[in-house]
Design a protein that fits this description.
Elements lengths: L1 H16 L6 H5 L6 E2 L2 E2 L11 E4 L19 E8 L3 E8 L7 E3 L2 E3 L4 E5 L6 E3 L7 E4 L5 E2 L13 E2 L3 E5 L1 E11 L2 E11 L11 E7 L6 E7 L9 H22 L1
Antiparallel strand pairs: 1-2, 3-4, 4-5, 5-15, 6-7, 8-9, 8-16, 9-10, 10-13, 11-12, 14-15, 16-17
Helix pairs in contact: 1-3
Length: about 260
């Protein structure tokens, strides 16, 4: 009995220590990127059964065509999932997020993330290029195309103004892989469901992201799943403390 309790406590400690530096892409969606010969060779499919996702790696067998302007502008994949507390979004791209890039003498901005609750039209925006994660309720007039010199596909890419609803947790990083001579970047967004007026089970959400020149656009239509609450670290610590107490009781009884 004591050995079993100690093993359970060890598992809890390891799970808590693993939360530091965790990423949604690998730890939530279960996608680990890899390359061979300078091209991606991994499985894009998430291991999370409830996740919605779309693959748009234009150099792969999925599409077999380059993005406008080449690999530098390629958006690879987008993922969406939720639990009872949050909505989770991850985007993989070859475009530098959030810093942007220079192309033909012009700075190309990273686009903001557009969201539509119920599949509307850019009703919400998350600030990506500014790196703040500001979540805003937006109107069509709040959206604009950041780089009008390049119009591969028309439409808005960034927003300004709107009504601030709160702030999403925004994380972005260079994955450290080179595909066809360009880096691989990931940005991840975690949004408290209360900021989205607590979407109900099966409620739809539309997502769109691109860079300021709109050379490659990725869209995803998903829905909210009826997931159970995931214990917070503090709850797990309390559980661990309880197990430690139980171990003490067992030890005293055996004496």
């Amino acid at each position: 009995m004591r050995a079993l309790l100690l093993a359970m406590i060890l598992v809890l400690i390891l799970s808590l220590s693993g939360t530091a530096g965790a990423s949604l892409l690998s730890d939530w969606f279960g996608v680990d990127l890899s390359t061979s010969g300078g091209v991606f060779d991994h499985d894009w499919t998430p291991t999370t059964a409830t996740a919605d996702y779309t693959i748009d790696d234009n150099w792969s067998a999925y599409h077999g065509r380059p993005a406008h302007g080449g690999e530098m502008f390629d958006v690879e994949a987008m993922y969406f999932d939720n639990d009872a507390n949050n909505a989770y979004i991850a985007v993989v791209t070859s475009f530098n997020v959030p810093g942007g890039a220079t192309f033909l003498g012009e700075h190309i901005a990273a686009g903001d993330l557009a969201m539509d609750m119920g599949l509307g039209s850019h009703s919400l925006g998350v600030d990506i290029d500014g790196g703040t994660g500001r979540l805003a309720e937006t109107a069509t007039s709040d959206w604009y195309q950041a780089n009008t010199s390049f119009i591969a596909e028309t439409g808005p890419t960034n927003f300004s103004g709107g009504t601030t609803l709160g702030y999403a947790a925004l994380d972005y990083y260079n994955y450290g892989l080179s595909e066809r001579g360009y880096g691989t970047y990931v940005f991840e967004v975690t949004i408290d469901r209360s900021l989205l007026t607590n979407p109900a089970f099966t409620e739809m959400v539309g997502l769109e992201w691109t860079m300021g020149c709109r050379n490659d656009v990725i869209t995803l239509n998903g829905d909210f799943d009826d997931d159970t609450v995931v214990p917070e670290p503090s709850t797990l610590l309390l559980l661990g403390s309880g197990l430690l107490g139980m171990a003490g009781v067992v030890k005293r009884r055996r004496k």
